[in-house]
Amino acid sequence: MNNTNFVSESELSRQRDMALTLAKEIVPRKLTFFVETFGCQMNVRDSETIKGWLSLIGYTQCESKEHADFVLFNTCCVREHAEKRLMGNIGALKELKDANPGLIIAICGCMMQQEGMAKKLLKRFPHVSLIFGTNALHRFPEMLNAVLNGERIAMTDRAGDAIAEGLPKLRDNQRSAFVNIMYGCDNYCSYCIVPYVRGHERSRMPEDIRSEIVSLVETGITEITLLGQNVNSYGNDGSTGMRFAELLRYVSDVPGLKRIRFMSSHPKDLNEDVMQAIATLPNVCHHVHLPVQSGNSEILRRMNRKYTREHYLSIIENLRKLVPDIEFTTDIIVGFPGETEEAFRDTLSLVEEVGFAAAFTFAYSPRQGTVAARMEDQIPEPVKKQRLQALNELQARKTVENNEKYIGHVGEVLVEGYDERGEETLLYGKYQNFKMVYFPGCRELLNRYVTVKVTKSSKNSLLGEMIDA
Ligand code: 5AD
Ligand code: SF4
């Protein structure tokens, strides 16, 4: 049964018509926009949609807020410090608004879905005129129209958490693209605010995903990253007729698609079928971002992660057997309530044992409304800080070890960018398994695949030389 709600085609065309009507007024005024995105890839992808709308409406993108007529912050609320930072950022825009009264200041994203937040911001910052949540993107033309008519708008209701297909987008590169496969999360990890702000889990239909990928490849994109809070539970509710491994198979034969990445994976749902898909589909990349969060099974239980240290390690072991060149990256939280020194040492020993290519490490940050925020044995900040530092030192050593393995390695790299240093141009890009390498070359190779041999490893990066362009 499919109980996912979709925004109707008539509503979408009403919004598109409104965008085109607005364009008649906006285009002659030569207005510009600036969007700043915080947080995860989900937000990056949402920002592409908003930029797509703004472009359709006739705004052009500019490089700094100082020159923009529309400024948007796309916010994240996963950790607490983001809120303080946002307040500072919005406060600072007051001056710009005084200098340019026509400036529209907007805020969107996860943080706006927190209870009471939109109201609080509208009250505190009279120079902000538009606030919307993650589920209102399809209504952007309507909201902007109201703002241009002098209203102040906050649209943060969940509107049945519906999926909107076919929204415009503006991407900033011609080589890789993010493709949402699902929205929301049902896992309720006890520290995490995401399920409260992004709503329950909804999967897109496979045909919609595939046709988006086909049209991306037609524009020259060769690498896609399938996005979801927990991609491994794609279709688990039976709504799509396909689970994640089947989806991988279903999209992998799109002609011209060279690389498929996906994130994030949840260890509890990474099953044998997904492992086989990674091992056998030629364009599925040999990299899994597999957040472990803690190396101690009791802390994992309190985090409501639904796997143990042993289960996590067995996934790593099985995948390495099937796919010898696979690399893992992870997320880790230190200082979760109740984390003893011994439990923390389990995290260190897991990091030592697995040898992640990279780890994103966080001090636990209590989020109001979550179960962990109400737990009694909260860890003092200085202890969290100490643990974070110890973990980071260990991971830095493991990164060096991991890099050293690559000396002499030869493989195909997708060129993502370049640094110009005097006479020399240093290109950089990733091997299919996510390892980044720097090598001398020319800018014309941007977005192309070249074969690179690693000649040297340094603390944070690999250096190499091109052996074939
Ligand atoms: N405190 C610290 N880190 C958190 N994360 C999520 N919620 C919190 C929190 N309350 C981290 C997790 C997650 C990543 C995106 O952010 O490690 O995987
Ligand atoms: Fe948060 Fe857990 Fe869902 Fe990830 S899987 S978004 S950590 S609740």
What does it look like?
- This protein is 35% helix and 22% strand.
- The protein is of the alpha/beta class and 469 residues long.
- The chain has 3 domains: 9-161, Rossmann fold (3-Layer(aba) Sandwich), CATH 3.40.50.12160; 176-402, pyruvate-formate lyase- activating enzyme, CATH 3.80.30.20; 410-468, OB fold (Dihydrolipoamide Acetyltransferase, E2P), CATH 2.40.50.
- The strands form 5 sheets. Strands 2-1-3-4-5-6 form a 6-stranded parallel beta sheet, with helices on both faces.
- Helix 8 runs parallel beside helix 9 (272-280) and helix 12 (341-354) packs parallel to helix 13.
- The radius of gyration is 23 Å and the shape is globular.
- The mean pLDDT is 95.
- Bound molecules: 5'-deoxyadenosine (5AD) and iron/sulfur cluster.
- 5'-deoxyadenosine (5AD) binds at residues 78-79, 191-192, 291, 293, 331, 333, 362, 364-365, 367.
Task: Please write out the topology.
Layout: H1 9-26, E1 32-37, H2 41-57, E2 60-61, E3 70-75, H3 81-99, E4 104-109, H4 117-124, E5 130-132, H5 140-148, E6 153-155, E7 176-180, E8 182-183, H6 194-198, E9 202-203, H7 206-218, E10 223-227, H8 244-252, E11 259-263, H9 272-280, E12 287-289, H10 297-302, H11 309-322, E13 327-334, H12 341-354, E14 358-363, H13 381-404, E15 410-421, E16 424-431, E17 436-440, E18 449-457, E19 462-468
Parallel strand pairs: 1-2, 1-3, 3-4, 4-5, 5-6, 7-10, 10-11, 12-13, 13-14, 17-19
Antiparallel strand pairs: 8-9, 15-16, 15-18, 16-17, 18-19
Helix pairs in contact: 1-2, 1-5, 8-9, 12-13
Bound molecules: 5'-deoxyadenosine and iron/sulfur cluster.
